Amino acid sequence: MSRMSLVTISFNQKEFLDACLRSVLDQQIIDLEYIAVDPGSTDGSREIIEQYSSIIKVFEKDAGPADGLNHGFSISHGEILGYLNSDDILLPGALEKIIDLFEKNPDIDVVYGHCLVIDTQGNELRKCYSDKFSLCAAAYGAAMVVQPSTFFRRKIFEKVGGFNVENKSNWDGELFIDFALAGAKMLRIDCFLSGYRVHNESITGSGKLAVLHEKYRRDIFKKIMGRPWRNIDATLAFLMRAKKHLFHPRAAIERLMHGSIFANSSKRLDGT
């Protein structure tokens, strides 16, 4: 069995942290390395992490989540990697499925699935589906990859140089795009692997992150397409998103029934 390393970044989310850690440690796989990175929580989060002797602990300041994740993975040893925010959870059996898929598909670099959206008590609110990934669709914001349900081989992570630490708003979305630009073979599976938690602390009214997200969308468009955004691209983006919903009716129904998961939220599933 391939060794897997999972990293959780933690910062002042004590209310949900224990459920996150347990969801990983309760997975029925033997060869799991679990690393918790906390750059300075003051709400008791570190005390919760300290209770678990099997977790490798990194209590050092960093330059943000991307830097913390890079540090966590730099001390890991697994061939298969994944990461989980401290307010999210893995669903039972998720890692068994992922390891099995990687072992049966040695040519695949990235495996990703869907997630359940859950509330503060862990109750399911709705389903969220990953899209079939393409760079063109990603350039137009029409290719969502659910971050907590995504796993990848160390070799592709090291090939792209890890997370871009200068990206303060969409570091995970950029990582997936860097994978694709580096020629990664990506496999979407029709399976729910994680729980993505929505809660009051994930709502922002400042508008600051909205500005950062908009800048990211323009920068990543140029990175993929090799040219700046033009007026015609707004129409193309609309058509790409319409096509996405047409060919993914389950996701479209969830959107019609429940609206956008990201409305007014600073928390992202995939950094896009």
Rg, rounded, reads: 18 Å
Portion of residues in beta strands equals: 15-25%
Shape: globular
Reading off the top of the CATH hierarchy, the class is best stated as Alpha Beta
N-end to C-end Cα span: 33 Å
Instruction: Give helix and strand order, one letter per element, not per position.
Output: EHEHEHEEHEEHEHHEHHH
CATH homology superfamily name:
Spore Coat Polysaccharide Biosynthesis Protein SpsA, Chain A
CATH topology: Spore Coat Polysaccharide Biosynthesis Protein SpsA, Chain A
Stretches with pLDDT under 50, minimum 5 residues: 203-207
Tally of individual helices: 10
Judging by the overall fold, what is the CATH architecture? Alpha-Beta Complex
Query: How is the quaternary structure best described?
Result: single chain
What does this protein structure show overall?
With 272 residues, the protein is α/β, with parallel strands linked by helices. The chain is 39% helix and 19% strand. Strands 1, 2, 3, 4, 5, 6, 7, 8 and 9 form a nine-stranded mixed beta sheet that branches. The longest helix has 18 residues. A hairpin with a 5-residue loop joins strand 6 and strand 7. The chain is built from ten helices and nine strands. It has a single domain, classed as Spore Coat Polysaccharide Biosynthesis Protein SpsA, Chain A. About 2% of the residues have low confidence.
List keywords for this structure.
10 helices; globular; nine-stranded mixed β-sheet; 272 residues; 9 strands; alpha/beta; Spore Coat Polysaccharide Biosynthesis Protein SpsA, Chain A
